[in-house]
Each structure stands twice: as structure tokens, then as C-alpha cells.
Amino acid sequence: SFGGVDLVKHFAVIGDPIAHSLSPVMHNAGYKALNLAADYQKFQVSPEDLGEAVLGLKALGFSGWNVTVPHKETILPFLDELTEEAVRAGAVNTVKVDKGRLIGHNTDGSGFVRSLQEHMELDERQQIVILGAGGAAKGIAMALAPFQAQLCIMNRTPERGAELVGKVLEWGGQAHQEEWGRGAWLVQADCVIQTTSIGLKKEEYPFSLAGIRPGTLVVDIIFNPWETPFLHSAKAMGCKTVNGIDMLLYQGVNAWEFWLEDKAPVESMRKALYQALAV
Ligand code: NDP
User: Is residue 53's pLDDT more than 90?
Assistant: First the structure.
């Protein structure tokens, strides 16, 4: 409280493009649900302006902000400190201003893990196939590494897949790579996580899920379209399917809890997201 008036806390997300971001809807609904004096905005920041934007947000008294494509790695040099999650991911999606210091954190991987744990146990007995080895796959694989699940990575460009396998091993996790599109691995899988951008334009997957066991948990981190052709065919094969909306939700929930050091109103945030997507 300042002179009897509550100080409003300001939060934001920066990225390029940013218009599509649902983070303001989700966070503002949460503030409203708890009657908190806080607001959350979105700002378009081009790569060449990133350093000035960071200084600007700090000077304007923002308490924290999310960082999205293409700034998740390039923001690192502008920060004072990184959490273990940010170091492990090599990327930052959440910044907190703490007594004038900028702390970089990452909730993409932990958010994904939190959403996955609503559907399965995570331990060394689980075989998890990750399709793709881009930024999202890296965040997910590095957050799964400490659970010691067996990660099987498949990527169109094998060099990138091998790099990710190496990183998981380096951090004490279990991982190997299989050839993109070869089906034998599917029979073993307890969970398949689709992290490529295939399906965003409703296109068919380049290979079939033939051989997958009914009941296997199949996750596609895309949520728009709500059900990609990949998820649709997994469902037709008797798999349990989950899209990427809860990954978005829980990265936001975990960012909230990092900033405000208190439980986030998960159901209000979820409801706002679903409403914004009109599902
Ligand atoms: P990147 O550009 O870092 O990686 C893209 C990945 O997709 C690479 O593995 C790439 O393979 C693969 N890929 C792309 N096109 C093809 C194709 N035609 N055939 C085979 N492989 C292909 O992107 P991100 O990892 O940042 O994002 C990937 C997806 O995840 C996006 O759709 C994004 O919207 C979604 N996402 C969802 C989130 C959520 O909260 N639900 C969070 C973050 C991302 P290669 O290495 O061979 O190029």
C-alpha cells in the first residue's frame, strides 16, 4: 500500500508477432477472480529493440513479463540472474524484477510437465516419444529429464535431434534418437508428444501411427486447430488424446506463482482461455 492506495502491479508479454497471444486474457481473468490490483498487457518488440524494451519495462516499474518467440534466447544477456530451469532450458519465458534485479526463469517445460501429470505418472519406467526437436521440444525434453523417463526423440533433421539427445544426457536424463517416420518405436510408447508445427494448417501428418497401442497417451502441443489431423487419427486408433492448451495454461500458472509467490486461480485462467478460443 502506498499512501493508503494499493500499488498496481504491471505484467506483460513481449514477442514478435504478439497479436495472437492469449496470455493477457488468461492473467487478467486471474487478477479479476482474486480481485488483485494488477494488469497484464502485450507488447510487440522487434529483435533489434529487445535491449531497450527490457530497460523500458524495468524503468516503467513492471513487476515481471513473459517472453515469447523470437526473444527466448536472445534476452539472456540482458538479465542479471537465471534460475536452474532457465539454465537447463537455455531459454527464458518469464522475467521477474526482484529488488531491481532481472531474474530469468522458464516455465514452458515445467508447465508442460504439470499438464502431463494430470494424465500419467512420470518415472523411469515410462517410454516417451517426442516428435520434433525445436524450441518447444527442447523445453519439454529438458523438463522431463529429471524424471528419468526413457525419451525417444525423432526429428526430420537428425542433427538437431542428436543435439537434443546430447543435452538430455548431459543433464543426467535418458534419451536416444530414432529415425523420423519409422514406426517400431510406437509399439513401446506409453506417451507420444507431437511438438512440430505440422497440423497448424490442418495438414495430414507425414507418417502414420500404425502399430500404436490403444490407450497410449498422445499429446499434440498445438491447440489451434483444437484437434489436429494427427490427434484425430490417434483418437481413431483408440489412443487417449490431449492438445496443447494446458501447456499454455500451466506455463502461465507457473509464471504467476513465480511472480506472486502464491497459488494462481487455475480454473479462472483455464475458463478465460477456453472462452477466448470459443471452445
Ligand atoms: P521450432 O521452429 O523451434 O521447431 C519446429 C520443429 O518442427 C522442428 O523439430 C522441425 O524439424 C519440425 N518441423 C517443422 N515443419 C516440419 C515438417 N514439414 N516436417 C517435419 N518436421 C517439421 O518451433 P517451436 O518448437 O517453437 O514450436 C513448434 C510448435 O509448437 C508450433 O506449432 C507452436 O505453435 C507450438 N507451441 C505450443 C506451445 C503451447 O503452449 N501449447 C508452446 C510452444 C510452441 P526440423 O528440425 O527438421 O526443421
Answer: yes
Q: Mark whether 271 is an active-site residue.
A: no
Q: At what angle do helices 245-260 and 108-116 cross, to 10 degrees?
A: 120
pTM: 0.94
CATH of 9-106+246-276, one of 3.20.20.150, 3.40.50.10860, 2.30.110.20, 3.30.1300.10: 3.40.50.10860
Q: Spell out which residues line ligand 1, taking CB within 6 angstroms.
A: 132-137, 155-157, 160, 195-198, 200, 206, 221-223, 244, 247-248
Judging by beta carbons within 10 Å of its beta carbon (0-12, 13-18, 19+), is residue 9 exposed, middle or buried? middle
| Closest ligand 1 atom to 221 CA | 41
Report whether pLDDT(3) > 80.
no
The ipTM estimated for the assembled molecules is: 0.98
Residue whose CA is at the smallest distance from ligand 1 atom 43: 136
> In the predicted model, what is the mean pLDDT of the chain?
95
Cell numbers that stand for 160 in this block: 538437431
User: What is the tens place of the pLDDT at every residue in 238-252?
Assistant: 999 999 999 999 999
Q: Whose CA is nearest to atom 46 of ligand 1?
A: 157
Distance CA 227, CA 114 (A): 21
Q: What is the pLDDT of residue 183?
A: 72
Q: Which atom of ligand 1 is nearest to the CA of 206?
A: 19
